[in-house]
Amino acid sequence: MRPLLPLLLLGTVALGQPRDVFPAGAQCLEHECFAVFWAARPFSAASEGCERGGGHLMTVRSTVAEEAIALLLQNRAGRLWLGLSLAPSLSCTEPSQRLRGFRWVTGDRSTDYTNWAPSGRRCGERCVTVSRELRWEERRCDEAADGFLCQYSYGGSCPRLAAPQGVLVTYATPFGARGAEFLALPPRSVAFIPELGLELRCDEDGDSAGPRWSRDIPGAWPCEVAGGGCAGTCGEERGRPRCSCAEGTVLAADGRGCRSLCEGSPCHHHCVVADGSFVCMCFVGYRLAADGVGCEDIDDCASEPGPCEQQCVNTQGGFECRCHSGYAMVDGRCQPRPPCLEAPCQQRCEELPHGYRCACDPGYAVDPRDATACRLYCNATECPAVCGAGGSCDCPEGFVLDGSDLCVDLDECDSGHCEFNCTNTPGSYQCHCPHGRYLRDNECLPIPDGDGDEAFSGDSEPVPPTPVPSRPPPKAERLHPGLLVAIAAGALLSLLALLALGLHLARKRCRSHGSMDYKYSGPQEKELGLQPVPSAQKP
After folding, report:
1. How far apart are CA 382 and CA 399, in angstroms?
2. Among 75, 344, 393, 491, whose CB has the most other CB atoms within 10 angstroms?
3. Residue 418 CA to chain centroid, in angstroms?
4. Could you tell me which residues are beta bridge partners of residue 357?
5. Nearest-CA neighbor of 137 among 79, 92, 182?
């Protein structure tokens, strides 16, 4: 249980509220006041009476509030409204719940304490009263109770005024209660001291920790009452009270508060109290101006020697060091910029003594047309696939995707691309024809009679496209007689050569075919494409 703060019960009432609603007693803690009103009112009228004084019907969430009720009632008989009611939208109370479905007038149901009187299910009674036995009892809201309890909340309070013995001090609260025995007073309370002709007010003070006693007239009041209201010390000067402040501070305009000499000073940056006055000072990187209050930026780059190794740029209150082109700032020093730092290499960069060169990741090779770019490189069997951000992967022509990111060579020879022998190559293939045939459009055609073997090849290789002349051929001109004689002689020699070739072929056909040789197309082929070749007769 939270310890009960000092409470005080008032027995007299001097100030009233509108509509004949008067507090019969009040108690104040540091942040709250409670008041009792003995006036027969229904629940709604009692709630309005509390609101006119700036409060609401009392909420009893702990035993501290219950003890305050006990002091206010002083064993007087009667039932008083509490700030607890059941909404009309609910059909009945819920005995199993802590507050039985009721809500505080503040709109919530939170509480650490309840004290319901033993009773049955009472669905038609939607408001709550409390008696001197401190039991909560349900009651019809439109019926008049004997009185009501109000609660007022504040951010802080003023303490009871210290006064000379025999000097009476009475207080009036903003919610209408008046008496002489308060220990704490809420803001807007008034203290009356007739013997000293003094009237003080508890005011909110934005410059202090909370409310404090003050008055409209500047200067100290008698030091015997709350230290004359001085923030410093109170003393008499020529028979009159006067406030004084500690070193480094001066009296405020009201003659009671103390403020620093630097408060409201014209200094741009810092203010320092010294020898009963103040001195302006500036941040690092600035100097005090000629007027003694302003601050000017110091051009650090203008000093000799300069603070930077290569370039210096002055800034407000400081400076910035920079490096020349081709250099970079490393640990506060300008170092030659690594050539690869700005190299346009697509994948990798290798530093050289006098520059750099671009390199590629595994599976890629430098593009011969662009030394900074990389292209996919495939060996005889596989290469990495090129995969995009969407997850799709592509392979070069003649390769197929195996798994998620590997391209393997497609063996075209297994697909019957060639009529006879076939040799697979990385990304492609070669067709071969047997002796006596030549290849055309992947077909092996017989060599025409009378043509030599040397005129036809049995192997196929990619045939480049027929070049298109960039300019029209020259016009035909009449041949020179000497040229005609040369052409005739050449034709005669060609005819003789063909005859000799025919005789040679005739001899080969008559020869035995028992001895055969084999050859393969080249070392780069993955499989040996074998074909029979007639062995030549030794001379």
Report:
1. 8
2. 393
3. 65
4. 350
5. 79
| Structural contact between residues 210 and 157, judged by C-beta atoms closer than 8 angstroms | yes
Closest of 287, 39, 233 to residue 146, by C-alpha: 39
List Cβ neighbours of 539 (8 Å cut-off, separation of 6 or more).
none
- Return d(Cα 45, Cα 41) in angstroms, integer: 6
- H or E element in which residue 157 lies: none
Q: Which of 190, 189, 198, 211 is nearest to 164 (CA)?
A: 198
Alpha-carbon span 295 to 318, nearest angstrom: 14
Of 154, 129, 153, 125, nearest to 140 by C-alpha is 125
CA distance 57 to 37: 11
Cα diameter, the chain:
161
pTM of full prediction above 0.70: no
Type of residue at 440: R
Please compute Rg for the chain using Cα positions.
Answer: 56
Q: Which tokens hold the place of 361?
A: 């990741």
User: What whole-number distance in Å separates Cα of residue 63 and Cα of residue 50?
Assistant: 22
> 300-336 has which fold?
Laminin (2.10.25)
Kindly report the CATH number that applies to the domain delimited by 18-193: 3.10.100.10
For residue range 396-442, list pLDDT tens digits in order. 888 888 877 788 888 888 877 788 888 888 878 888 898 888 888 77
Q: Which residues are within 8 A (CB) of 299 and not within 5 positions of it... i.e. 6 or more apart?
A: 314
DSSP 527: S
- How far does CA 152 lie from the centroid of its chain? 43
As a whole number of angstroms, the distance between CA 358 and CA 378 comes to 19
Residue 265: CB atoms within 10 A of its CB come to 16
Name the percent of the chain lying above pLDDT 70: 80
CA-closest candidate to residue 248, choices 266, 237, 263: 263
Q: Which residues of 293-326 are buried (b: 16+ CB within 10 A; e: fewer)?
A: bbbeebebbeeeeeebbeebeeeeeebebebeee
* 432 and 418 Cβ atoms separated by less than 8 Å: yes
Instruction: Dump pLDDT digits (tens) for 38-59.
Output: 999 999 999 999 999 999 999 9
Residue that has been written with the tokens 């004997």 in this structure = 146
Partners of 149 in the beta sheet? 36
Return the closest-CA partner of residue 37 out of 111, 144, 114: 144
List the one residue out of 311, 279, 309, 315 whose CA is nearest residue 297.
315
Residues 6+ apart with CB under 8 A from 339: 349, 351, 352, 355, 356
CA distance 272 to 250: 14
Q: Which two tokens stand for residue 221?
A: 């009041």
Q: Which residues of 393-410 are buried (b: 16+ CB within 10 A; e: fewer)?
A: bebbebbeeeeeebbebb
Token couple for 334: 């300008």
